[in-house]
Amino acid sequence: MQKRILLTLLASLFAMSHAMADVKLNGFASIVTGIDFEEDEQVEYNDRTVDNLQESKVALQWAADLGDGMRFVGQTMARGDAATGFQLNYDWAYFDFNIGNSSKLKFGRLRIPFYKYSDYLDVGYAYHWITPPESMYSLTFSNMDGIGFQQNFQALGMDHALNLAVGTYQGILILGEEEVQSSLENLIAINWTATIGDHEFTAAYAQADTYVPATSTAGLANAAPTSADDGDKVLINGDYGFFIGAGYKGSFGDLTVYSEYSIVEIKDSIFSDTSGGYIGVSYLVDDYTYHATYGIRKAEEKEYTSGNVDFGNGTSLNSTARFFGNGDSTTITIGVRKDIGMSTALKVDLDLYTEDRVQDALAASTSEEKKATVLKFAVETMF
């Protein structure tokens, strides 16, 4: 049904283009595979590594010029899945309106401006890694339904870009190792970028009321009858969550330095406070880009004074909190990118991942460390 709707929409857009609109099509594709060299039985292959098409994707984007500075922009993406092949999703669908020469208003399904690479997060050709560092790009959602505003201006000798978005998100959040249907209400995000010469600075802030149904999340349904000293602070029902991020990119001839860092917290909740980021360098030699990146991620689980009471199934409030706070991890990525022609790149990345795991399951004992050594290959293109 979803494919039939997509084909009908495409046909309608093409028909409309002959009558009243100029439709431009473009797209991108990434084909990724990899090898896991780690023999640690604790590491599940699909959790940390690629499996044929797991990180592969193909997308088609179209923009219909409706006149008077108004456009419709749509994007569908098929993401690879090891078990079922490609799964089709409708990622973007919005109208935008030019306001003067330097401002734009958007309405519909938009990209949330969390990161430096948010606007082209899925376009692997746009950066040197096969995938951006998970230590920073860790949120499992990137789109929202709402209104966006973009403003470009010059001040203090710098070029500035301001991106503001307001709306909601309804979909899957990854909590611990669970996929939970949740929602973010009253979502507001702002991203500011300042560029001076070969140096670029980025700052971002986002907040939302976070709704997670306790009945569908392991441990939370049992966590409801907490003691008086904990009150209702352990439940997620409109609690206030926020994201803070900052980044820097500087070029010094053929050498480029990259860095980003973020903090994510949900106040008065059972979910862990997380922070993470990376620092990396790349060096350009003809058509080759050699790069190295060090990423770190921390999760601080909550602990409650009376949270060790057994719920009767071997779990407690504190064990549930530990399940959602999976400890600290580091990733070292070493790789090379080879540009071919005008819009294609070959990439090879070696990821060395180490995780200090707090707890694997709600009722399981703690474990100390997990490792993965992954060699990944990719062909990425734009068309």
Count of strand segments: 16
Separate helix tally: 4
CATH architecture name: Beta Barrel
Return the domain count. 1
Low-confidence stretches: 5-9, 13-19, 41-48, 224-235
Structural class determined from secondary elements: mainly beta
Topology-level CATH name: Porin
Distance between the termini: 27 Å
Question: What does this entry look like structurally?
Answer:
This protein is mainly beta and 383 residues long. It has one domain (32-52, 94-382): Porin, CATH 2.40.160. Helices cover 9% and strands 57% of the residues. It contains four helices and 16 strands. The longest helix has 18 residues, at 2-19. The model is unreliable at 5-9, 13-19, 41-48 and 224-235 (pLDDT under 50).
Key terms:
single chain, 383 residues, mainly beta, Porin, 16-stranded antiparallel beta barrel, 16 strands, 57% strand, globular
